[in-house]
Amino acid sequence: MKKMILILTLLLSLVQAEDENAKAVYDLTTKNLAKFERNILKGIVFNKTLYANQLKELDVAVVIHGGAYRFFVKNLDTTIFKNDQKLQKAYKELKQRIATMADTYDVEFLMCGAAMDRNRLTKDDIVPFVTIIPNSTIGLINKQNDGFAYIPVGD
User: Fold this and answer.
1) How many whole angstroms separate alpha carbon 32 and alpha carbon 123?
2) Distance (Å) of CA 119 to CA 12, 65, 94, 114, 138
3) What's the whole-model pTM score?
4) For the domain that residue 130 is a member of, what is the CATH number?
5) Distance of alpha carbon 130 from alpha carbon 109, whole angstroms
6) In the chain, how many domains are there?
7) Is position 83 within any domain?
8) pLDDT class for 20, splitting at 50, 70, 90?
9) Would you say residue 101 lies in a domain?
10) How is residue 70 annotated by DSSP?
11) Using 50, 70 and 90 to split pLDDT, how confident is the model at 6?
């Protein structure tokens, strides 16, 4: 009987381990549009697709701070980022692609609220699918404590 219980416990543990999703938190600080596109827009979709092809899920969170605020504003023209010509050219399509990541790929976007004043931003300036958190450090600590692998995306 003890052997049977031990075997059942081991089998249940293996099944539970198989069901757990992989998790990644991206520490996004870059203001570089090409790097943002490569690592976030393309990279996350690529990685989620790899996991899906293995019939697994990849849970992704992105913690936004540093130079990355610029990618998540509703209207560039009303922010301090309005003079970024490269971003102005790409922004309409960029906003759609980011929204698709939140809607279609279930990417969680978390923005550091501590430096929003320094960037002259309010919650009303930020796209609606971004959650404002007290600060980036707390967001990164919480995600890593929840088992998310840390991936930096800086300049």
Assistant:
1) 23
2) 50, 10, 20, 10, 19
3) 0.85
4) 3.40.1260.10
5) 5
6) 1
7) yes
8) confident
9) yes
10) G
11) very low
| CA 73/CA 91 separation, integer angstroms | 10
Do residues 76 and 95 touch, judged by C-beta distance below 8 A? no
- Strands 130-133 and 149-153, by their bridges, are unpaired
Domain for residue 6, yes or no? no
Cα–chain-centroid distance for residue 18? 23
> What tokens were used for 83?
């003079």
**DSSP strand pairing (130-133 vs 58-64):** unpaired
CA separation for the pair 53, 37 (Å, rounded): 22
∠ at Cα 8 (3, 9), nearest 5°? 95
Domain that holds residue 71: 21-153
Confidence of residue 14 (pLDDT cuts 50, 70, 90): very low
109, with CB counted inside 10 A (0-12, 13-18, 19+), is: buried
What CA–CA distance (Å, rounded) separates 98 from 109?
A: 10
Order the strands of the 130-133 sheet from edge to edge: 130-133, 108-112, 58-64, 22-28, 149-153
DSSP 148: P
- Within-domain flag for 13: no
* Residues composing the chain: 155
Q: Which residue has the tokens 């699918």?
A: 129
